[in-house]
Amino acid sequence: MPIRPARRITNTSPKNFGMFAKAVGMQGDLIHLELGMPVEDTPQHIKDATIAALQSGAVHYSDLQGLPELRGAIADKLQRQNQINVCADEVIVTNGLTQASFAAFMAFLDTGDECLLLAPYYPQHIGKAELAGAKVTVAPLDAANGFSIHRALIEPHITPATRAIALINPCNPTGRVYTRAELDIIADLAQKHDLLVLSDEVYEEITYDGARHISIASLPGMKARTITMCAFTKAYAMDGWRLGYLAADAALIGPLMKMHTSEVTHVNTFIQHGALAALTGDPEVLKSMVDRDRARRDLVVTRLNQMPGVTCAPVEGTIYAFPDIAATGLSAQECAEKLMADTGVVVEAGSFYGKAGEGHLRVCFGCAELDVLEDAMARMQRFFNALC
Ligand SMILES: Cc1ncc(COP(=O)(O)O)c(C=O)c1O
Fold this sequence. Notes:
This protein has two domains: 7-42 and 284-387, Alpha-Beta Complex (Aspartate Aminotransferase, domain 1); 60-280, Type I PLP-dependent aspartate aminotransferase-like (Major domain) (Aspartate Aminotransferase, domain 2, 3-Layer(aba) Sandwich), CATH 3.40.640. Helices cover 40% and strands 13% of the residues. It has helices at 7-10, 18-24, 44-55, 68-80, 96-108, 123-131, 151-154, 180-192, 250-264, 269-280, 283-305, 332-343, 370-387; strands spanning 31-32, 91-94, 114-119, 135-140, 162-168, 196-200, 226-231, 244-247, 320-321, 345-346, 348-349, 361-364. Strand 3, helix 6 (123-131) and strand 4 form a beta-alpha-beta unit. The structure holds pyridoxal-5'-phosphate.
């Protein structure tokens, strides 16, 4: 008899790796713009601090919640930069944002609960809510008004079973950085309907042209009902390190720690010294990395808008452009597959992020150097010239 997996596994939607999985078997000269993997290297001072910690014996079990000095630096940063009034005991250091959000979904969602996602959504959130036994419901935002947050698009999807709402700000895949007025709507809905907000802020540092990232937990009354999740992953090019953190009101930390310690005990001791160096190091390092992302964004958005059948909205934050290709008459999936087959440029179909993303492609500009992006844009220009 084959060993039967747990029902929580078989009841969960199959994991879909989108165009990345389709590109795996492809031969030829591919340009990968489908994954959010930063092209930058981790800054040297972060590596040096980690190596020094490793050499000096930081190789043993340590504080389960995260090194106290690191949690202190995170709390300082959250108070100063995010305007969230947290102390070090309200922070948990995690293995990337992925583990922070898994702990959050598992600690606060039950069988029968509903978890509301704004679409386009981040598909990983679906699997986590489902593993927790919850039902995922979706509030589609509207491409026609720039995927902005409107009460009328969200409130009808809130039912008595809705327990949590997941927010991604700055938003992957749309590149939106939500305004205070938009966040006020979510805060108001959360308080009116007694919802927890799971706030994924993995792109918080990567904003452009004066777009200001606001953490929803900083809004009046929201700290008590928000789990703020951040990571070193994107801004510091530390995706392989698996290093992030969450912050929540003291009353929520106990359940989160129960999940966290069951999953990982704690995050690797020596890499936490690298995180400390990231937070306490020269801020110019981070600024120059974001400046280089801005140059990549400018190239890609400008070039996309020169292609027939393609319209690309300004990108306010993140490392993704989300051009509208509906005028080509192809579905997003058809367009992404044909683009890959004809040109070798791999991008993600907008429909991967839910029906609300149909008619769009997600083009990651943070994962390639400018000369590679130039090549990709030239190939895409020829593709859309031939198509339209
Ligand atoms: C919205 C969002 N959340 C979470 C993650 C995963 O972050 P981490 O690698 O820190 O687990 C990503 C990565 O692309 C993301 O786009």
